[in-house]
Amino acid sequence: MPSLDFEPPKYARVVLELRRRIEEGQYPPGSMLPSESQLVREFAVGRTTVVRALQMLQQDGWIVREHGRGSFVKGRPASEREVTRPGLAVLDQPETRDGVSLVQVGTVPAPSPVVAVLGLGEGASLVMRRWVSTRDGVPSELVTCWFPPELAYGTDLGSDSPLPVGVRAHLRSVRQLRIDHIAERLTARLPDADEPTLLQVGSSDPVLSILATAHDATDAALFAVEVVMPGTLHELEDVYSVPD
């Protein structure tokens, strides 16, 4: 796993909060959002960050920006394009499903990137769950979840028995925990440790790594999950609008 520290971009927090306010009716359709200067003060970020957040909201159809006037709410887009979200998909995947094999459960030292995204101290230990998903008999994903011990306490996350429901559903049922949003980072790298064996790839074959962090509504990081995929079996494709 790469050793680079990672934090979700600041503009993501602004986007998520403004979307939440629009959905809850605080900013109804047709209303004007606070000015850029007001948002800069409220979120304690730079103007560039606020502008980026507003551009993303406009691109996704939540608002319309009018030069010299401000940003006006359109409301939730009528139809939001379905996008594959690897971090969320694996958290909804039962470990008892065909093609899923639980390969490791235990308490381990947290890797540096996980320490960074969860805001932990060096040397912290986490509860880890790791499983391999296969497609047509070939390993397609290696999934590793890291949970703080206090979150895993009283759950089956430390059990070596496969979960009959996804991690997200299990936490919601046992801990009444709701995941509000997930931040993901994609990295292309070479496999390390036991990844070549588990994914049946060569040590020089590239893999795609997605490190996802689950957050609650206050933006606090709850736990982390990494999805590692053989580069030869996966490709990324996206289609998006370009603002004027």
TrEMBL record:
Keywords: DNA-binding, Transcription, Transcription regulation. InterPro entries: Bact_HTH_transcr_reg, Chorismate_lyase_/UTRA_dom_sf, Tscrpt_reg_HTH_GntR, UTRA, WH-like_DNA-bd_sf, WH_DNA-bd_sf. This is Transcriptional regulator, GntR family. GO terms for biological process: negative regulation of DNA-templated transcription. GO terms for molecular function: DNA binding; DNA-binding transcription factor activity. Pfam families: GntR, UTRA. It comes from Thermomonospora curvata (strain ATCC 19995 / DSM 43183 / JCM 3096 / KCTC 9072 / NBRC 15933 / NCIMB 10081 / Henssen B9). SMART domains: HTH_GNTR, UTRA. Residues 8-76 form the HTH gntR-type domain.
